[in-house]
Structures are given as C-alpha cells and as structure tokens.
Amino acid sequence: MAATQLKPCLVLLLTFSLLAFASAISRNRIKSLNQIKEVNRKGPYIGLITVIATEEDAFFASGSFKPDPKFPFIDLSGRRFRFGVVRGRKVVYVRCGEGMTNAVGATQQMVDLFDIKGIIHFGIAGNTNNSMSIGDVTIPNQIAHTGLWEWLNTNGTLDSADVAQLEIGDYNVPKGNGTNLLGHIGYMEEEYYSVAGEPNVAESLLWANISLQWLQLASNLEGMKLEQCVNSSLCLTEKPKLVVGLRASTSNIFLDNAAYRDFLFQKFGVSSADMESAGVAMTSLSNGYPVIVIRGLSDLAGNQEGDNVVSKFGGLAAVNSVKVVLGFIRNLPLITR
C-alpha cells in the first residue's frame, strides 16, 4: 500500500525536476543569445579554429590574443568561443576537438551564430610527402575527405564512380601469400551542398578548393623564419619551411602506417594528413565563407622507426603553425562592415 502511494509522489517529483531543468536550460539559452547579439555588434570577426590542447596552448603562449574585456568568451554546447583581437583584427576563437564530426559541428555553429567574414583553421598534421620534413608548415590549395569508403569483399566490384582503389592484398607479407579476406576499398566522392548550388541538390566533390585570394595572400609568407628547436638539446636537422599550394587529406584515422601513407601520396598526391581540415574547409565553403588551412607537420605519418614522434615535435609544429597564422592575420586587410 505504501509503495503504491509513493509512485504518484515520485512521478510528481520527477515532473518538477524536469520542468526546473528545462527552465534552467531556457534561461541559459536566452542569456547566451543576448550575449551573442552583444558580441556581434562589435564584429565582424575572423574565425579561428584549432583542434587539440597542444595547438591551443601554442596559440595563447604567443601572447598575440587580447581578450575582449566585456565578453571574453561564451560557452555553447560544451565549447568555449573566445572573443578578442589578434594583430589589430577582431577574432573569435574555438577549439573544436578531434575528428570530422567535431570539426563540422564547431564550424557550422561559428558561421551560424557569429558575424564571421572568414575562417582560419590551424594546428598540426602528419607528413605524407618525402620532400617535406617535421616542423614544416603546409597551406594546402586543395583538401580531400579520404574517409568515404566502400569496403568490398574479395569478389566485390569497384564502383565506376569511385576515385581510387586500395587492394589490401597488395600489402601482404610475403606478397601474394594466399587470399586476403579483407578485400579492397573503393574511395568515394563527397556529397557537397552549398549556397552556390541548387537547394537540396548535392554536388559530387573530391577536392575542396581553398579560397584563392587568401592563398595568394599566404604565398607572400613563404620564406619566413620558423622555429627549429624544441629546446637547447632537441633540434631538427633542417630549418623548417612554409610551403603553399600542396594537397591535403582528411579522414577519421590517426595515420601512423608507412604503407598507407605511401598509398595516399601515390593515389591522391597529398602532402599532409589530418582528421579535421576537410570538415572545416567544406563547411566554410558550403556556407559561402573564405577559408584557409595552416598545418605544421608534427610527424612522418608512420615512416619513422619506433614510436611516433608527435610527442617530441608536436609542440614545435604547433608553434610554427601559429607563427604563420599570425603572419597571415597581420597581412589581412582591416575588415569593416
């Protein structure tokens, strides 16, 4: 009898709790929307997006970011969007988190909510090009999402629309020793929607083309001095360089495998690999915003002996990417409404 009488009380208590929770969310949302209106009155901004703490630490350690005294940040969906000035240009900065989903979500949130004139995405990446070295910085002119696969069985047929094929059996050791049941992978193009296209009609896209005007502006930075040493006892053997105009690939894979590294370079001609750049670039471009990607090379993507060296040189690569970002921002024309 007591248990039966208790149930309505529990239901009532749960109802009140849910209403209170919903009310708190509503109040926080209204507060955030009001703050967004306030910060947008101070715009327009250049959007800055990094991925991991190493990149964020390098950015703030540069001392270039001067936070807005009234609205230094707004927290939205678990991310902290920071407002301030870099080299005389108003910026909004966010760390998106690893992977394509995080990259797309944070970028779309940024362009939807804030008065943005363009996006600079920067951080570190794996090197897939033997002519590049750890510590170098690459600004690609094209980026492909190489994570759209159809994984076929051993008797599967490659789709004529696929842009490349990876025969896993080609990498058997010893070569040709029996049947590789993993079969082969066909690489697919992206379904790309944009403000420039027909509504609800996707375009097939492999390469996202980085905004030409920003690429030309970035090319003026080639030859700039980059950091060569992590500390007094750990230095790179060669002076790092900035290269503008190569290709990059993105997929939800941390690449630490020499054979796959070589495959990406041979099939797609990419010089760097990461997990976010295509997401940021395609989202920016599909919404009609200029975008540029600046990545410092932190490792040889599986082509070095022993453990991946990203733990040694990731910080240096991040610092060099920040140096290029600051140079690029300094060369941007002052933005007015």
From TrEMBL:
GO terms for MF: catalytic activity
Domain of life, source organism: Eukaryota
Biological process, per Gene Ontology: nucleoside metabolic process
InterPro entries: Nucleoside_phosphorylase_d, Nucleoside_phosphorylase_sf
Leader sequence residues: 1-24
Keywords: Signal
Occurrences of domain Nucleoside phosphorylase (ranges): 47-330
Protein's UniProt keywords contain Signal: yes
Name of this protein: Nucleoside phosphorylase domain-containing protein
